């Protein structure tokens, strides 16, 4: 924020740090271990009286001087130049904090240069003892230089008590100082042996060559196990959060973590092979390979060390964006006005892309390139549009802390997302295309109020059954819709009939074979634990069948139905025919229709890439599903994507418990796993926080221009959306997570940490609930069954258990389900969407001729055969409807 940005879009700052720093560290460590190699090799040569070995050492010293003092010094300056322009604030902090440390290190380095020059030019001029003393002093200066730099470098990862005391020595002798010092010294000795191989192969005298090669091999083989053990020591002293990130949470570090011991073993084995009787040409090639492996060891260690710091340049002090947290607070305040060198200060519709470019340079460019070889931003964002990128930015740094949080206002976040999507990735915004939906006509059976002896009302237990529709990859719910029916014998005092009658349900034409267009039945064993015949649900029902009589209610739980007609297209509202017959005579008593809403409209592609799977309107595509599973694997160490590709799709509820009527599969061991609802809402809440109620339509089929339009009830018509009952995304997730946390599930606290409730003051005010069994209570707003106030909300007042759910409740006489007269959840009467009134209000249209609650407008004659004089038999205040 305080300094200009070095524009390196093609490569990004990370590329230059990797190239310059790794090569410098490679040579600098050789400068330490190689110094001791000079002294020990000279001691051995003089002890053996070997002039060929001394001649070799003289040549090796010249190579050593040119490489370490010339290239090493220049690359060291290159590091200073690079970090000073990429991270000026961090550089300034290191200089100010360790000014005397740097001065001391430069003095030691000056000593290195002077002594090494004396050592080289005094090779034939100084007596042997003096010459070896000079060589030892070079090693001493090199080691002291390493000692000093080690303290400063490791301070950046583990500052220890320095943030509290601001004491030089607390920062210098930080928690990783000693393991890092031993590791770096061992690394220097190993590299000395590897360079010894490279130069020794040029010795003309065979005996001397073999002697030096064997000595170099001992340096390598002895150093390798020390490097392995000190690597674990180093990781072991890291702060717990950093250690967990290194060992478990970072997918980037995982490859380097595995490569480190493998490279050490390869170098040790290769060194043993090099001293065997291989042809000289092969040994020279092997020596080069070993040097490259040594460079790989340096690169792997530095990668782990740098990655472990994420999202910090100095742990806890300065982010990788070179911004201090104290400078950035509050994080959601406009960023550009506070950035001294920003050309754009205020985001407007006209300068949005330019503002996005400025934000990218200040908050992304330090690590990410555009089209470069390291962390190309397009690799992370090209598969999604601006809305998906904006969600990433919203959640950045919350659950996964390897990146700092995005700093800026919602308008700035949108500007950055638009710049990345449109200018960087070339994804121009595509206006949303409303689904092709037309009002549906329903051929309602006739009803004569004066003569009809029976009344049959059908309803659905849920306003819509939602599935992902990507059963070849994963399943969130099994196909199955619950139809219920009430048969009323009309009379002065009507009676609910369940004895000596049957009620059959029949799917409409085109919905008799749901397995034709849904892959669930191909993978039924994996997804449900059962072997199923095509078109048979997990409860054993078929599209046509007979309902089961219960307590004054008939039901068919799990009728297999999909939104895909056999003939093609999409229809989320198949209308079933219900027929009540006398069980003894077979005479038809009553006929009605009932809609069985079902949808696969989930817009996962917004954030995960891909598209809709069917007709551009619904279904999670294979590409989207694969992306979701790959991300789950990356974050949780699973192998779901590979299993799905191999023909073993994943039933999410097989691990995460679900109380959904369509769970279909009990979890194998769900005691430590978050419920499916808590896991999904809890995770995504960090990425959708601050959103308006329309955010629900990203996952649920409630988009007003979508193919389902599931939120179609009288509440929606009155402008009452999801939030008034379920709370905002953060509230909804917290209500589930608070319960999971109380149940001892550790992941709940992690998902809760970034969330702040919006409908109540604090997290402590959020009341816990169990998904699907504890939902908003209608009577919270409709007190005593009256009309609610304009600002009434049902959030945070839950039903005690499933018996209190609207879909399971009955009116006061205990005979009629609430949903029979009022409509299904999210489809309460008057319900309307693009499919029209008929299909959404079947009972009212059939029995009253107009949409509304059954019995409203004084239409008691629907059930009663005489005019009723009023009263509140079914529930209080019913006459006001």
Provide a descriptive summary of the structure in words.
It is a single chain. With 881 residues, the protein is of the alpha+beta class. It has 29 helices and 17 strands. Strands 3, 6, 7, 10 and 11 form a 5-stranded antiparallel beta sheet that branches. Strands 9-8-12-13 form a 4-stranded antiparallel beta sheet. Strands 1-2 form a two-stranded antiparallel sheet. Strand 15 and strand 16 form a beta hairpin. Helix 4 (99-121) runs antiparallel to helix 5 and helix 14 packs across helix 17 (410-424). The radius of gyration is 36 Å and the shape is elongated.
Topology:
Blueprint: H1 13-48, H2 51-86, H3 88-97, H4 99-121, H5 128-155, H6 162-165, H7 168-172, H8 177-200, H9 206-236, H10 240-249, H11 251-274, H12 280-308, E1 312-314, E2 318-319, H13 325-328, H14 352-363, H15 377-381, H16 386-395, H17 410-424, E3 454-460, E4 465-466, E5 474-475, E6 481-489, E7 495-496, E8 501-506, H18 524-528, E9 545-546, E10 548-549, E11 554-559, E12 575-582, E13 588-595, E14 598-599, H19 605-608, E15 612-614, E16 618-620, H20 622-636, H21 640-645, E17 650-651, H22 676-688, H23 714-717, H24 723-726, H25 729-742, H26 746-752, H27 778-781, H28 818-822, H29 842-847
Parallel strand pairs: 4-14, 5-17
Antiparallel strand pairs: 1-2, 3-6, 6-7, 6-11, 8-9, 8-12, 10-11, 12-13, 15-16
Helix pairs in contact: 1-2, 1-5, 1-8, 1-12, 2-3, 2-4, 4-5, 5-8, 8-9, 8-12, 9-11, 10-11, 11-12, 14-17, 16-17, 16-22, 22-25, 25-26
């Amino acid at each position: 924020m305080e300094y200009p940005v070095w524009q390196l879009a093609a490569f990004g700052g990370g590329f230059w740090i990797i190239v310059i720093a790794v090569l410098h560290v490679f040579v600098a460590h050789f400068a330490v271990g190689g110094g001791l190699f000079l002294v020990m090799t000279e001691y051995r040569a003089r002890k053996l009286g070997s002039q060929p070995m001394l001649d070799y050492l003289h040549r090796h010293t010249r190579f050593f001087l040119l490489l370490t003092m010339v290239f090493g010094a220049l690359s060291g300056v290159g590091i200073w130049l690079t970090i000073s322009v990429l991270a000026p604030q961090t550089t300034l902090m290191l200089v100010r904090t360790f000014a005397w440390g740097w001065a001391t290190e430069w003095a030691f380095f000056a000593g290195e240069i002077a002594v090494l020059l004396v050592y080289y030019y005094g090779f034939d001029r100084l007596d042997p003892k003096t010459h070896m003393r000079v060589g030892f002093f070079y090693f001493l200066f090199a080691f002291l230089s390493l000692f000093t730099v080690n303290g400063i470098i490791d301070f950046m990862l583990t500052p220890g008590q320095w943030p509290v005391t601001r004491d030089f020595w607390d920062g210098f002798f930080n928690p990783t100082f000693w393991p890092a010092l031993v590791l770096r010294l061992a690394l220097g000795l190993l590299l000395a042996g590897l360079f010894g191989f490279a130069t020794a192969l040029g010795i003309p005298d065979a005996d001397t060559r073999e002697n030096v090669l064997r000595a170099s091999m001992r340096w390598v083989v002895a150093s390798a196990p020390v490097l392995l053990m000190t690597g674990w020591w180093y990781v072991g002293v890291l702060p717990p959060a950093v250690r967990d990130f290194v060992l478990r949470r970072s997918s980037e570090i995982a490859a380097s973590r595995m490569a480190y011991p493998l490279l050490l073993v390869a170098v040790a084995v290769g060194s043993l092979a090099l001293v065997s009787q291989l042809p000289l040409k092969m040994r020279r090639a092997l020596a080069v390979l070993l040097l490259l492996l040594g460079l790989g060891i340096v690169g792997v260690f530095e990668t782990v060390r740098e990655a472990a710091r994420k999202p910090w340049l100095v742990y806890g002090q300065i982010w990788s964006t070179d911004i201090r947290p104290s400078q950035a607070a509050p994080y959601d305040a406009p960023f550009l006005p506070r950035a001294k060198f920003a050309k754009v200060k205020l985001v407007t519709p006209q300068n949005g892309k330019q503002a996005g470019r400025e934000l990218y340079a200040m908050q992304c460019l330090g690590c990410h390139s555009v089209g470069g070889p390291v962390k190309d931003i397009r690799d992370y964002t090209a598969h999604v549009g601006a809305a998906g990128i904006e969600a990433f930015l919203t959640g950045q740094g919350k659950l996964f802390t390897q990146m700092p949080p995005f700093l800026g206002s919602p308008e700035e976040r949108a500007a950055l997302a638009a710049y990345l999507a449109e200018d960087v990735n070339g994804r121009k915004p595509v206006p949303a295309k409303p689904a092709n939906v037309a009002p549906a006509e329903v051929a309602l059976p006739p009803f004569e109020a004066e003569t009809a002896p029976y009344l049959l009302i059908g309803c659905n237990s849920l306003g819509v059954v939602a599935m992902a529709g990507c059963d070849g990859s994963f399943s969130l719910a099994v196909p199955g819709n619950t139809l219920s029916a009430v048969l009323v014998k009309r009379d002065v005092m009507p009676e609910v009939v369940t004895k000596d009658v049957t009620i059959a349900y029949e799917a409409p034409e085109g919905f008799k074979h749901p397995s034709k267009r849904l892959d669930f039945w191909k993978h039924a064993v994996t997804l449900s634990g059962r072997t199923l015949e095509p078109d048979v649900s997990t409860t054993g029902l078929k599209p046509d069948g007979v309902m089961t009589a219960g307590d004054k209610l008939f039901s068919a739980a799990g009728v297999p139905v999909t939104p895909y007609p056999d003939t093609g297209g999409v229809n989320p509202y198949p209308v079933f025919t219900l027929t009540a017959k006398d069980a003894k005579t077979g005479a038809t008593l009553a006929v009605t229709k009932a809609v069985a809403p079902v949808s696969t409209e989930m817009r996962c592609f917004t954030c995960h890439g891909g598209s809709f799977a069917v007709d551009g309107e619904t279904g999670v595509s294979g590409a989207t599903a694969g992306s979701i599973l790959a991300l789950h694997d990356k974050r949780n160490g699973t192998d779901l994507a590979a299993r799905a590709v191999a023909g073993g799709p994943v039933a999410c509820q097989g691990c995460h418990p679900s109380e959904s009527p369509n769970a279909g599969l009990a979890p194998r061991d769900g005691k430590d796993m978050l419920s499916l609802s808590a896991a999904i809402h809890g995770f995504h809440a960090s990425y959708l926080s601050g959103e308006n109620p329309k955010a629900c339509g990203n996952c649920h089929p409630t988009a007003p221009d979508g193919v389902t339009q599931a939120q179609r009830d009288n509440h929606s018509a009155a402008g009452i959306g999801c939030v008034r009952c379920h709370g905002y995304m953060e509230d909804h997730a917290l209500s589930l997570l608070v319960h999971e946390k109380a149940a001892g599930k550790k992941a709940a606290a992690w998902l809760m940490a970034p969330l702040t409730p919006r409908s109540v003051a604090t997290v402590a005010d959020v009341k816990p609930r169990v998904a699907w069994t504890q939902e908003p209570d209608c009577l919270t707003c409709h007190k005593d069954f009256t009309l609610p106030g304009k600002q009434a909300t049902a959030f945070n007042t839950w039903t005690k258990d499933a018996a209190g759910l609207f879909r399971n409740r009955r009116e006061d006489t205990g005979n009629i389900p609430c949903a029979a007269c009022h409509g299904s959840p999210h489809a309460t009467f008057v319900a309307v969407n693009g499919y029209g009134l008929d299909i959404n209000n079947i009972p009212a249209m059939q029995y009253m001729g107009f949409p509304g609650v059954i019995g409203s407008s004084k239409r008691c004659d629907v059930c009663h055969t005489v005019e009723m004089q009023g009263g509140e038999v079914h529930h209080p205040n019913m006459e006001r409807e």
